[in-house]
Structure formats: C-alpha cells, structure tokens
C-alpha cells in the first residue's frame, strides 16, 4: 500500500512539473510569450499625454490583476459605509456646470464607503494602512463617484505599476503572512526599488495611517481633475474632505492592541455615532488652478505622488456632507456598492494623470468579475436616482424589462431614440484638450523628482510626529529579514532626511548612510495634525466607579459631559447597578473583564475600592495604560486621592479637582486636546 501510494505521488509530481514555473532570472514576456521591452510605463500620446487603448500589455496586466480575487475586492476589501446628504454652500457655476455644485438649496443623496487598502475582509480596522474614502453622489444628472483616500498622494505614478505594488504589500505568497501589514520583505523591497513611493511612505509611516475614527479622517481625491463651466472654460482641481471634528489618530501601541481588543473599532464607532444622532460631517474643499498655471510649480500637477501645498494653492470650502443613516443590509449595500472614477457628470472631467487614466479602465473591469457581469449598475445601491436609457441589453442579472423592438443606434423604427443629448441641453462632452506626441512608453522628466515633497512632509511635522514616523520605520523594517533590503531602504530615505535615515539604521542594525540629505527647507503647516481642529464632540470617556459615590455630584458631571457631546460608559466591579451613598442608582456598562482602556478617549476616576484588591489592580492598569497613551484623565474626591497615590496626579492632562463646577470645564478642555504629548513618563 505504502509503495503504491508513493508511486502515485511521484506520478502526480511529474504531471505537475510542466506547470511549475520559477520566474527568477527570466526575461519578461506577456501571457502569450511576447518579450516586452518596457514594464514601467503605459503607452501614451507623448510623455504627458493620455494612455492609449492600443496598449495591449497594459490591458492584459491590469485585466489579470483585476480578476485575481473573488469575490471580495482585491484591495479595499475591509470596508464600512453609511448614507447621507451633500449640500453645496454657494454656486460654483463660474467653474463647473455640474448642477449639484450650483444650487445651495438642493440636498444630494450620498453613499460613503470607508475602507482599509491592504487587509482582507476579516482583518482589523486599526492596522497601519491608507484608508479609502469613496463617495457616491446620486445627482439629478447621474451618479458621480469621488473615489479617494485619507492620504492625498499615492505610491506610484503610472497605473501599469499597480499590480506590482499590490503584489508587494499583500501577504507574501509562499506562506500568506503577514495579514494587513506592510512589515515584511516584499513590500520594502518594492519601496527601495521603486523610489517614486518615497512621499507616500512618509504619510504611511505617520499618524495619518492610524486614524482615531472615520469621523476624524480627511479625504482626498488624490488625482488632478478638471472642472468645466458652461462656456467650455476649464480649471484644474483637487478635491478635499475636511472633517468637522478635526483630524486625529491613535498612537501605535494603542492601534496595535485595538486590533485584538476590538477589530471592528472603526465600523462600530461610525455605526454608534449615527445611531445616537451624532452625525459625522465633512466639508468639501477644492484647490482650483487656472489652466495657464499648469507649469508654474517645481513639480508636475498631474503627478499623483505630489500634493499642491495648501499655502500655495488654498483650499476653498464649498459644501458639507452629513452621514445620517446606517445601512439596512451590509452585503446588499456596503459589499455590493460599485465605485468608478469614470462615473462623472457634466462639468467634471479628467486629466492625463497616468494613474488616473489606468484607473478609468480598471474599475469597470473589476466590477465585472466581482459582481457577476455588466449589470452591476442595476443593483439598488448602485442605481442612479435619475432615469437612464440606452441600447445596452441582456447580460448576467439583468433586471430592467426593456419594451419595444429597437436596441441599436441609429434607427428609424423608434425615431432614432434613445437620442444623444447636446452639451447645451446637459449632455456630457469630453473636454477638448489638444493632444499630440509620439507613441511612447516613458515617464515625463517632470515626474522624476521623488524626494522633495517627502522632505516637505518631514519638515512640516512636529517633534512628536517626527518621533512617531521614526518609530514606525523602525517597527516595519525590524520585521524585514533581508539585511540588503533594510540597507537599501535606509540609503533611500537618506535622500529625504539624513538624520532620520541614520536613526533608523542605528535601530535596525545596518550601516548608517554617510551622505545624503535634502536642500528643501520649506514646510506646510496644513500637513501637521497638531494644527487640526480640537473638539470634545464624539469622544468616549470611561467612568470608573464603585459603591458609595456621591450620586448628585456624579450626575452633574455625566450630564455635563453629554451636553458637550461626550459619550461615557460606566465601569465597576460587576454588571447591574452601582449604588451611591445617597441611594442613587447607576447602570454599569462594563467590568474590567469586558472592556479595555484602548477603547476610550479619556478616563474619569470617581471612586475606587480599597477592599477589592483585584479591582484596584485592574483600575491601576487601566488608568496607567491611558496615561502612557497620553490620554486625558480626570478625578474628584476619592478618585483624586487614589490617583495621587499612583504618582500621576501632577502630569499634563490629568485633572484633579473636588469642585465639579471647576472640574467639568477643565476636563472637557483636556478631552478636546485629544492627547497630551508633553506628558513625561517617570
């Protein structure tokens, strides 16, 4: 039996041998065996021109990539969404004929999906990653999709590199490890050998990649688009979403622990906020640039690895979006929603950004495989609110019952309908940009500066933010096994900041670079989260209390917190009610067994229990963890005395006060600050 089994295995191995391919050391070909001379750039009409449909290599590469995963999204698989409405503040007809950007009395329905990029559907919310921020506007002229991220730049400049990027940051193919993390060899090998990623890496290593909440996260359209008005005049534009609550983040240790304590933290936070009526709000901002200013900067405005510094091109706030309704069914809405940059309305158009050009192809192709065919627009969450008529018919999952015989253009049997609509009557007409050039696979010289804006970002950070970026580099690269890759990355980032590179090298055991640095001295204050809005709204406080508290006083404090839109949960020795010395009853939400410090923004210590030593130990651990994460801590009476014994009472952000009339405003102020970075740990 054993010999027969062994023989069968050998036979099977020989049969499979033909299919085993080792690509190492081989020359690049297409899937048809055609040797290719270039794999970095898509085929364009001139170095800064549009990508051509003729590019069979680009289409083969992207088509294969788009179909690599079923049924979840290849990227942005882990997502959560909500319904809402958008209202423009003022008429933008000077710049665009898009109707939803003209009438301030109109409320346009929206559907917004937030997501992580790297991990699978089962990964955690709080991982270090870029976050998707995709908005579908259901306008009277059709659906418009603004498909962006919480980071304004991207890793690559040309969409033909997107499969390579994703292959590099996904779990390594031999063992499918690690999940939802870039702390591994293949990603950093890609970074070191594709140095256009330098600017994006600085953002990913910053606190922007570990946001506190979807409600406290900026959104960016990433690409340069066009706004076109009724006269055919065009302006370049970049889109921004500015959260009303400001931009805030976790600290890394906290984010790391949250992945285990509550992997659904971000989606739960968004769902709960909407359910209790604390609707997330974001203002829409635009950076607008006249076409004649296209070449006035020392970077190419079509380069997706570059920002337009807000100090050079101010962001004009033009409207507000409010998310006010949770989904009824996660799969039917959040999972089946299909976004596409090509879903535009008259007045919004494209540019020759080669990353944008490729996405215009890729998104439709992706939906075809994910949602089973060409009729994904008929799924309720994707269906326009305005009527739609064309000669497209049949296909998988067709729901429309088309009447009549005619399904072609031009025709006489139906009076040549559905009929095209002239631009004067609201029909979409592509902006008539003059394009000329040789058919080439090349990158414009204006795209070849990879480090200046990475240095600009570094210069714009506060000392605290710089320390977090440095620590993030060390954490990620310490998980890389290849010393060669580590050294390459350190040498690469010496071009951004020499001291940063040397500090990283010192901590991961490679040679510090001897030369490097940058002559860029400019900074952009808008890039630092230290300059963001600071409000207490939407924060959650852990209230630690045991039997014998002052009921009237505690009620006053809790009511005051709620009046400032601050949520709280009560933690005590056991579930049920905890009784005050005046007979007051307070419902207990958690014990230390069912919750954790990382789930809260602040801690209020009302009264500890000297009798229950385990409770005291758990409370001490809970508070000290909040303290090490720089969170505000408040206490009155017994709680104050308890904290003084723990030797943290005189630290910044720790509010100790018996008079609740003085305690409440000071504690709210401490909560508004988000974190107290000047706190020194003893």
Automatic annotation (TrEMBL):
The chain positions of domain Catalase core read 29-417
Q: Where is the active site?
A: 76, 149
Q: Tell me the keywords, alphabetical order.
A: Heme, Hydrogen peroxide, Iron, Metal-binding, Oxidoreductase, Peroxidase
Could you tell me at which residue positions the 3'-histidyl-3-tyrosine (His-Tyr) crosslink is annotated in this chain?
Answer: 340-363
Q: What is the protein name given in its UniProt record?
A: Catalase
Q: List the biased-composition ranges (Polar residues).
A: 516-531
Cite the residue spans of the region called Disordered.
Answer: 512-531
A biological process (GO) of this protein is: response to oxidative stress
Record-annotated residues binding heme?
73, 113, 162, 359, 363, 370
Its cofactor is: heme
A Gene Ontology cellular-component term: cytosol
Molecular-function GO term, any one: catalase activity
> SMART domains, alphabetically?
Catalase
Recorded catalytic reaction(s): these are: 2 H2O2 = O2 + 2 H2O
- Which CDD domains does the UniProt entry name for this protein? catalase_clade_2, GATase1_catalase
EC number(s): the record gives 1.11.1.6
Taxonomic classification: Bacteria, Bacillati, Bacillota, Bacilli, Bacillales
Summary of the function given for this chain in its UniProt record = Decomposes hydrogen peroxide into water and oxygen; serves to protect cells from the toxic effects of hydrogen peroxide.
Task: Write one Pfam family the protein is assigned to.
Answer: Catalase
What family does the database annotate? Belongs to the catalase family. HPII subfamily.
């Amino acid at each position: 039996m054993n010999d027969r089994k062994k023989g069968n295995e050998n036979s099977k191995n020989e049969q499979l041998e033909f299919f085993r391919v080792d690509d190492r050391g081989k020359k690049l070909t297409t899937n048809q065996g055609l040797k290719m001379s270039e794999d970095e750039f898509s085929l364009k009409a001139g170095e800064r021109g549009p990508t051509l449909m003729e590019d069979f290599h680009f289409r083969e590469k992207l088509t294969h990539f788009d179909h690599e995963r079923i049924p979840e999204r290849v990227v942005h698989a882990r997502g959560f969404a909500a319904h809402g409405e958008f209202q423009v503040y003022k008429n933008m007809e000077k710049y665009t004929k898009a109707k939803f950007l003209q009438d301030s009395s109109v409320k346009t329905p929206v559907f917004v999906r937030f997501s992580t990029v790297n991990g699978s559907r089962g990964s955690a919310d709080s991982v270090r990653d870029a976050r998707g921020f995709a908005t579908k506007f259901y306008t009277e002229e059709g659906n418009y999709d603004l498909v962006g991220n919480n980071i304004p730049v991207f890793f690559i400049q040309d969409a033909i590199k997107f499969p390579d990027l994703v292959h590099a940051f996904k779990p390594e193919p031999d063992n499918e490890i690690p999940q939802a993390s870039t702390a591994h060899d293949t990603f950093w090998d890609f970074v070191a050998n594709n140095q256009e990623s330098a600017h994006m890496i600085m953002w990913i290593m910053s606190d922007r990649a570990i946001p506190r909440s979807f409600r406290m996260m900026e959104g960016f359209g990433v690409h340069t688009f066009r706004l076109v008005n009724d006269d055919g005049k065009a302006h370049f534009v970049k889109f921004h979403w500015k959260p009303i609550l400001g931009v805030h983040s976790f600290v890394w240790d906290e984010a790391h622990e949250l992945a285990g304590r509550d992997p659904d933290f971000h989606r739960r936070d968004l769902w709960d906020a909407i359910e209790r009526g604390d609707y997330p709000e974001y203002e829409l901002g635009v950076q607008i640039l006249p076409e004649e200013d296209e070449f006035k900067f020392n970077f190419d405005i079509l380069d997706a690895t570059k920002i337009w510094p807000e100090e050079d091109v101010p962001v004009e706030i033009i409207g507000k979006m409010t998310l006010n309704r949770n989904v009824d069914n996660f799969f039917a809405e959040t999972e089946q929603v299909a976004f596409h940059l090509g879903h535009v309305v008259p007045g919004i158009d494209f540019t020759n950004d080669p990353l944008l050009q490729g996405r215009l192809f890729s998104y439709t192709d992706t939906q075809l495989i994910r949602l089973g065919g060409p009729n994904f627009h008929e799924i309720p969450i994707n269906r326009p609110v305005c009527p739609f008529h064309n000669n497209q018919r049949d296909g998988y999952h067709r729901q429309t019952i088309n009447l009549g015989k005619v399904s072609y253009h031009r025709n006489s049997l139906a009076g040549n309908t559905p009929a095209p609509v002239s631009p004067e009557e609201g029909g979409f007409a592509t902006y008539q940009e003059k394009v000329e050039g040789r058919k080439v696979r090349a990158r414009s010289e204006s795209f070849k500066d990879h480090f200046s804006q990475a240095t600009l970002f570094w210069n714009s950070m506060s000392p605290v933010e710089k320390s977090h970026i440095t620590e993030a580099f060390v954490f990620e690269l310490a998980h890389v096994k290849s010393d060669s890759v580590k050294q390459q990355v350190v040498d690469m980032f010496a071009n951004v900041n020499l001291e940063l590179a040397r500090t990283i090298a010192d901590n991961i055991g490679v040679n510090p670079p001897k030369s490097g640095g940058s002559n860029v001295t400019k900074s952009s204050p808008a890039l630092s989260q230290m300059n963001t809005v600071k409000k207490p709204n939407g924060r959650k406080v852990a209230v630690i209390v045991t039997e014998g508290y002052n009921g009237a006083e505690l009620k006053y404090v809790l009511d005051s917190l709620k009046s400032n839109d601050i949520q709280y949960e009560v933690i005590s020795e056991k579930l049920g009610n905890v009784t005050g010395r005046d007979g007051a009853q307070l419902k207990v939400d958690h014990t230390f067994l069912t919750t954790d410090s990382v789930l809260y923004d602040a801690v209020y210590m009302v009264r500890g229990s000297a009798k229950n030593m385990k409770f005291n130990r758990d409370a001490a651990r809970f508070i000290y963890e909040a303290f090490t994460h720089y969170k505000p801590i408040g206490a009155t009476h017994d709680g104050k005395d308890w904290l003084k014994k723990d030797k943290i009472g005189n630290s910044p952000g720790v509010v100790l006060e018996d008079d609740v009339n003085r305690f409440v405003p000071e504690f709210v102020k401490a909560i508004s600050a988000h974190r107290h970075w000047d706190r020194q740990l003893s």
